[in-house]
Amino acid sequence: MTTHQPWAVLWDVDGTLVDTAELHYQAWQALALEIGKPFTRADFAGTFGWRNPEIIPKLFGRDYSEDEITRLGDHKEDLYREEAKKGVAHLPGALSLLESLRTSGAKQAIGSSAPRRNIDLILDLTQTAPMFGAIVSMEETQRGKPHPEVFLLGARRLGVPAERCIVIEDAPVGIQAAKSGGMRAIGVTFVGHHSEQKLLAAGADLVVPTLELVDSKRLLAFL
After folding, report:
1. Residues 6+ apart with CB under 8 A from 153
2. Could you confirm whether domain 8-19+89-221 is CATH 3.30.450.20?
3. What's the rounded Cα separation, in Å, for the pair 84 and 18?
4. pLDDT tens profile 165-178
5. At what angle are helices 21-35 and 66-84 packed, to 10 degrees?
6. Active site residue ranges
7. How far, in Å, CA of 180 to CA of 149, rounded?
8. CA 149, CA 89: separation in Å to the nearest integer?
9. Where are the beta strands (DSSP E) in 27-156?
10. Which residues in the chain are classed under CATH 3.40.50.1000?
11. What pTM does this model have?
């Protein structure tokens, strides 16, 4: 394949573009306290990157109806957004990589397990919305990561074949989703939830401590 062929980078948000993990943890902790359920750091790390419809039954039991799961998930996200509105920042290297990819002609999309309101808030706070040609959120998928649906839908909206796509992720389930969708995957360990070994075991083609170590040329070489 030649470099003039279309190619794309699909971004996860939390843990790759910005570090809002602690805000999510605090929101889950507050929700668990309200409903009288235990919630630990291990619970958080073990489900980070999942969609709320999968997280809630996994952590809090399967006695909740679909409507109750939706209500609990919405309340958790309200708690999260109230804190996120106070300000978030790009992770090291994220903004420079976004710019490098745009200059190179790569298409870019968001592929996230987060609700659309969360994604829109983060893109607004970081002023990065114009960088992305497509956004795929929790509401638009039926199956969460490690199923590849979220990334395949993003690639389809960009008009780029899966084999010409690279995913940037910080969670093993996201790496697995990328690989099962026929894409390359770059793991980032900066937020510290998952080790280099775990991301490599999930199938990552490259793992870096920060995105300061990659640019558009290095990513394109993977294709």
Report:
1. 111, 136, 140, 141
2. no
3. 11
4. 999 999 999 999 99
5. 130
6. 12, 14
7. 10
8. 28
9. 107-111, 134-136
10. 8-19+89-221
11. 0.86
